[in-house]
Specification:
With 136 residues, this protein is mostly helical. The chain has one domain. It is 51% helix and 0% strand. It has helices spanning 2-21, 23-33, 57-68, 86-94, 97-102, 120-131. The longest helix has 20 residues, at 2-21. The N and C termini lie far apart (66 Å). It binds heme C (HEC). Heme C is lined by residues 68-69, 71-73, 78-79, 81, 92, 97-98, 101-102, 108-109, 111-114, 118.
Length: 136
């Protein structure tokens, strides 16, 4: 009897541990809270291969921030950042805050604060720029 309940408990614990790690449960929970966003594929784990990407700040990254971020993240420094400077984008990337914010991860404010989540390709560009050494 004791043995059986021990096994039962371990199975339950294992199940609980696995289910809390499931990325799909996170994305469901998030998208229901933000019905304005069309989807939240970003919260799910996605495979990212940056090896063929040759990204530079001026060509690839600056326009993204100018379109989506610098109307708030300028001299007024909303959230502490002025994203007209690549140096501040780099700081926010290194701290983990920037990717946390654009991926709408738990514990980060969801950015852009005024609209839909960036599309997956845009987020991958930012992440790959970071992964490949943040070239100017
Ligand atoms: C409409 C205004 C607005 C826009 C647009 C906007 N932000 Fe923000 N952002 C804010 C505000 C306000 C805060 C502070 C919110 C807070 O701390 O809860 C903030 C905070 C942040 C932070 C700090 C997060 C942290 O953990 O404290 C980051 C990183 C960030 N924004 C990135 C971005 C990026 C990247 C974009 C563009 C994709 C963007 N934001 C677009 C208003 C904006």
């Amino acid at each position: 009897m004791k043995k059986i309940s021990l096994i039962g408990i371990s199975v339950l614990l294992l199940f609980a541990a696995c289910s809390t790690k499931m990325p799909t449960s996170i994305s469901k929970e998030k998208s229901s809270k933000h019905s304005g966003a069309s989807s939240n594929i970003i919260a799910a784990n996605y495979k990212i291969d940056c090896s063929n990407m040759n990204l530079s700040f001026i060509t690839d990254i600056k326009p993204i921030f100018e379109t989506h971020c610098t109307k708030c993240h300028n001299e007024g420094r909303k959230g502490g950042y002025n994203f007209t400077y690549s140096a501040e984008i780099k700081t926010a990337l290194r701290s983990g805050q920037l990717l946390g914010a654009v991926k709408w991860q738990k514990g980060f404010p969801h950015m852009p604060a005024d609209g839909a989540q960036l599309d997956l390709n845009t987020i991958i560009k930012i992440e790959c720029w970071y992964n490949t050494g943040m070239k100017e």
